[in-house]
Amino acid sequence: SLLAEEDRMTTNELVSVEKSSYRLVNAPSGTVFTCWTALSKTMIGTGMLALAYGFSKCGWVLGFVLLILSGVGACFTLHLLNILAMRSSTRHVSFFTIAEACAPWSRWIVDVAIAVKCIGVGISYIQVSGDTISHVIGVWSNDAPDDTLRRAMVVLAVLALAAPVCFARSISKTVIVNVLGLLAITYVVVLAVALTDYNSGAVTRWDLPPTASFSSVLSVVPTFIFAFTCHQNILLCAEDMKERSQRKLDVVAFASEAAAL
Question: Cα(39)–Cα(45) distance, rounded to whole angstroms?
């Protein structure tokens, strides 16, 4: 019939990323270690930006409960994405191809959502870098330019340093940057523990703060979920994993979540 012919033509005209050759990549070179560094660096970096605020709103006990539940949920989600990656008929797999296979109408929505999320995270990192590094320069140097100019110069320098990493053809090529980032984070943690004054008399609460309410606690739940965000990278790891298997991908997911916790 005419309607059937129109449906067939429409289907043939759809953009099939999975079957296309638009992305020519080298042979996979990723290992469990390189993929682990990528996911761990992503999670730990985002978690450091917001978890302190989350704990201040709900106390230690509820904070750790939310932290564990969010970690378990994130790990299970990574496991499901690993299953989808292993079921892909081609080595190239992305959220676009998964959405194309499951719900073609949503493929552009999914891609736009992930792009907005990644841009937001990247901007937050640039802002934190601009504030922190410009402040350090101002403390160290008496001849530093004014705050606005100094911050602008730092932001441009960070962009220039980060740009080459963004153009890496595979996620395993970022392993050196990831390792350096993990070492820097470890240094900050050790420094904070070593320099903390445990006899300062600062008040810390295990239960809910007196000012806590249902809405205030609910408002920080996304903070704990966001602390384990790395799902945009797991499919890149699956694509670049040498001799990929469900077990290898699940080991990467579990080890990354454990490191973040």
Answer: 10
Cα gap 100→65, rounded to integer Å: 36
| Angle in degrees, CA 239, 169, 119, rounded to 5 | 90
Q: Cβ contacts of residue 239 below 8 Å, gap of 6+?
A: 25, 28, 85, 91, 92, 93, 94, 170
Q: How many CB atoms lie within 10 A of CB 251?
A: 15
User: 3-state SS of 16-82?
Assistant: CCCCCCCCCCCCCCECHHHHHHHHHHHHHHHHHHHHHHHHHHHHHHHHHHHHHHHHHHHHHHHHHHH
Residue 77 has pLDDT above 60, yes or no: yes
Contact 101, 85 (CB under 8 A): no
Average pLDDT taken over every residue of the chain: 79
pLDDT given at position 120:
78
Averaged pLDDT for residues 212-225: 82
Distance of CA 33 to the CA centre of its chain: 17
Domain boundaries, the chain: 29-196+228-260
Note the pLDDT tens digit of each residue in 91-113. 788 888 888 888 888 888 888 88
In sequence order, what are the residues at sequence separation of 6 or more whose Cβ sits closer than 8 angstroms to the Cβ of residue 145?
153
Please write down the HEC assignment for all residues of 161-187.
HHHHHHCCCCHHHHHHHHHHHHHHHHH
